[in-house]
Specification:
GO terms for molecular function: DNA-binding transcription factor activity. This is MarR family transcriptional regulator. It comes from Spirosoma foliorum. The chain has helices at residues 3-7, 12-33, 43-52, 57-64, 68-80, 102-127, 133-146, 149-159, and strands spanning 55-56, 84-88, 96-100. By secondary structure, the chain is mainly alpha-helical. Helix 4 (57-64) packs across helix 5 (68-80). Strand 2 and strand 3 (96-100) form a beta hairpin. Helix content is 68%, strand content 7%.
């Protein structure tokens, strides 16, 4: 048996990371095999910008629930690849608004069939599960939004003293 599976709750974060790594490897290989020069790390931000139109950095961070520095790192890479453009907001000069560049727009038709395949495969795998992973993930995220993991651990440690 898989040792991480044997460790059960102790290895939850490691198993989630391993599952993520398996997905990233498959997606990266698919992009490469399809001749699309795209990094899996860019996908959520790229899709948000493509769907939303001009969007501010802070709004991306809030909508995706990731840090501002993490967003900056990805948008810098997207800008270097000329996949997005950045312009100051007319309403607030402190805000940078991001939109797909012509190169980014031209890449969408190459990416969409791959994304459609990712969705189909995920739907099939989720449909074969007893408990839907997406529902379970949402439930865990909701619990952690109410009280973070560190605070929960501290409570547990204080109860056992």
């Amino acid at each position: 048996m898989d040792f991480m599976a044997e460790m059960a709750e102790l290895a939850l974060a490691s198993r989630l990371r391993r599952l993520s790594d398996l997905y990233w490897q498959g997606v990266t290989a698919t992009y490469r095999q399809s001749g699309v020069d795209f990094d899996v790390r860019w996908a959520t931000i790229f899709v948000l910008i493509a769907r939303q139109g001009p969007v501010a950095v802070m709004e991306i961070a809030e909508r995706l629930g990731i840090t501002h520095p993490a967003v900056i790192q990805v948008i810098n890479e997207l800008e270097k690849r000329d996949l997005i453009t950045s312009a100051k907001s007319e309403q607030d000069g402190r805000k940078r608004l991001l939109a797909l560049s012509e190169t980014g727009q031209a890449m969408l038709p190459k990416l969409q069939p791959l994304w459609d395949a990712f969705i189909s495969v995920n739907q099939e795998m989720l449909g074969n599960q007893t408990h839907n992973l997406l529902t379970s993930l949402q439930e865990m995220e909701d619990q952690l939004a109410k009280r973070n993991f560190y605070d929960r651990i501290q409570d547990q440690l204080n109860r056992t003293k």
